[in-house]
TrEMBL record:
DNA-binding is among the record's keywords: yes
Record key words, sorted: DNA-binding, Transcription, Transcription regulation
Domain HTH cro/C1-type: start-end pairs: 13-67
Keyword Iron part of the UniProt annotation: no
Origin organism lineage: Bacteria, Pseudomonadati, Pseudomonadota, Alphaproteobacteria, Sphingomonadales
GO-annotated cellular components: cytosol
Family listed: Belongs to the short-chain fatty acyl-CoA assimilation regulator (ScfR) family.
Protein name, entry field: XRE family transcriptional regulator
Highest taxon listed in the record's lineage: Bacteria
InterPro entries: Cro/C1-type_HTH, HTH_RamB, IrrE_HExxH, Lambda_DNA-bd_dom_sf, ScfR_C, TransReg_Diox_bact_type
Gene Ontology MF term list: DNA binding; DNA-binding transcription factor activity
Length: 464
């Protein structure tokens, strides 16, 4: 009987570790093995077992088939992806030559891939410094966002505790009665009494004070947030304890983000929520009506439903105003959407303000060829008082194109055949020379000045 060949993936494992930004010790901890064993695997002194493949796939959300690809085919695919960058658009790069390079010169291929990775990271760092005027200090809001993103927006401890508490609250007859049983009285007061606070806890009198102008979903969320801060305070502390924040402010913002996560999990417990999602095909408005929540709250919860063992659609969420200012980013996908300045103007998240309350869908393609599906709609926050203008923002949920047909918004469609809109993460990082919507030139390209020719796009660039 023929025996299977041992599987050696040393270079690929080392490359994966570096792409994830992990040390051998960190990867060993994730996989529950010793750092020395990681070193042996990377030097091809030990084969990768089926159990190790499964651990890698589970820990880092990878496809086992991709991990086990032939090295030459893998290099050819990855080099081809790199060469799709618009910066190479004017160079003739036949697929056969790319395949020959990958198969015959894997070392050169690896060097090219490393160089391109370093180039894109440096570009992103330069763009971030230019956009934010950064002095090298870490923005505490960005640090809190990165903390949440590092966990892929999923915290099993909070999910389990939230399900327990939600059951207790239902038995008690609601959050107010549950709090009353704990000795906390809930009072709704006018905004001028609360001095522009939506929620304030009076510890001395054990009173939770809420703005009386809040609507039903907002009241429920503020009640749930208080419960998260108090009944789940030890759970929040444990999650923050081992992380080194650069400032107390960043830690406070991370705790606020975790409390908001927990509050949403209390309002829409995981098991009940995923059943509602599956029954309604990710129809956000239908799910919101089912739970008595808002479009934005359900969108948040969809990003959070990212349990590794489940087969859910991973989403990225962005919230912005009409001026393009981004006020919220929730990332469970690892895709660096709109991390620098405002999103690409070709993305329909900008145009939904023209038709408030209507959902707009769009197929997107990044310069590296990655395709995504976007669901965007405006959300409105009312002050609850006459004469106060409502606050209108746009919410966009984005998933990988191949996952889109699982939602009601793209059911029955074929992602590969759908008409796509080419967008960029930022003008500074997008090398599509023909883009007419460009605001500024990309980093690293020299502008071609020519008084005798005015191209249709804002800038022309030299080939070198």
């Amino acid at each position: 009987m023929a025996q299977n060949r041992p599987l050696y993936l040393g270079p690929r494992l080392r490359r994966l570790r570096r792409e994830l930004g992990l040390t051998q010790q960190a990867m060993a901890a994730d996989l529950e093995i010793s750092p020395s064993y990681i070193a042996l695997l990377e030097r091809n002194q030990r084969p990768v077992t089926a159990d190790m493949l499964l651990r890698l796939a589970t820990s880092y959300r990878l496809d086992i088939g991709d991990l086990a690809l032939d090295t030459g085919e893998d290099y050819a695919r990855r080099v081809s992806d790199v060469l799709r960058d618009p910066i190479f658009a004017d160079i003739d790069l036949p697929a056969l030559e790319v395949a020959d390079l990958a198969m015959s010169f894997p070392g050169v291929s690896e060097a090219l891939l490393r160089l391109y990775t370093a180039y894109t990271r440096e570009q992103q760092a330069l763009a971030e410094r230019e956009e934010t005027g950064s002095t090298g200090e870490v923005d505490p809001t960005v640090e809190a966002q990165r903390y949440m993103a590092a966990a892929s927006m999923h915290f099993p401890e909070l999910e389990a505790r939230a399900e327990e508490l939600a059951a207790e609250i239902d038995t008690a007859g609601g959050a107010e009665k549950w709090l009353a049983a704990k000795g906390v009285r809930v009072r709704f007061l006018p905004p001028d009494v609360l001095v522009n606070s939506l929620r304030r806890f009076d510890r001395h009198n054990q009173q939770l004070l809420l703005d009386e102008t809040l609507d039903g979903p907002a009241r429920a969320f503020q009640l749930a947030t208080h419960i998260a801060y108090t009944a789940m305070r030890l759970d929040l502390a444990r999650l923050l304890r081992d992380h080194r924040f650069t400032s107390p402010t960043a830690q406070v913002l991370a705790r606020r983000a975790l409390a908001g996560y927990a509050a949403t999990a209390l309002l829409m417990p995981y098991s009940r929520f995923v059943r509602a999602v599956d029954a309604r095909g990710y129809d956000i408005e239908a799910i919101a009506r089912h739970f008595g929540s808002t479009f934005e709250q359900v969108a948040h919860r969809l990003v959070m439903c990212n349990r590794p063992a489940d087969d859910r659609v991973p989403f990225f969420l962005i919230r912005m105003d009409e001026a393009g200012n981004v006020s919220k980013r929730l990332d469970a996908t690892g895709v660096p959407f709109a991390m620098l300045g405002g999103p690409c103007p070709l993305w329909q998240v900008h145009t939904v303000f023209r038709r408030p309350g209507e959902i707009a869908t769009q197929w997107l393609e990044l310069p590296d060829g990655q395709r995504f599906f976007s669901i965007a709609r405006t959300v409105t926050a009312y002050d609850g008082r006459f004469g106060r203008a409502p606050l209108v923002r746009a919410i966009a949920l984005v998933c990988a194109a191949q996952d889109a047909p699982r939602t009601v918004y793209a059911a029955g469609l074929t992602p590969d055949k759908a008409p796509v809109t080419p967008i960029g993460l930022s003008c500074r990082l997008c090398h599509r020379a023909e883009c007419r919507a460009r605001a500024v030139p990309p980093i690293g390209r020299e502008i071609l000045a020519d008084d005798t020719n005015r191209p249709t796009q804002p800038f022309s660039f030299s080939e070198s």
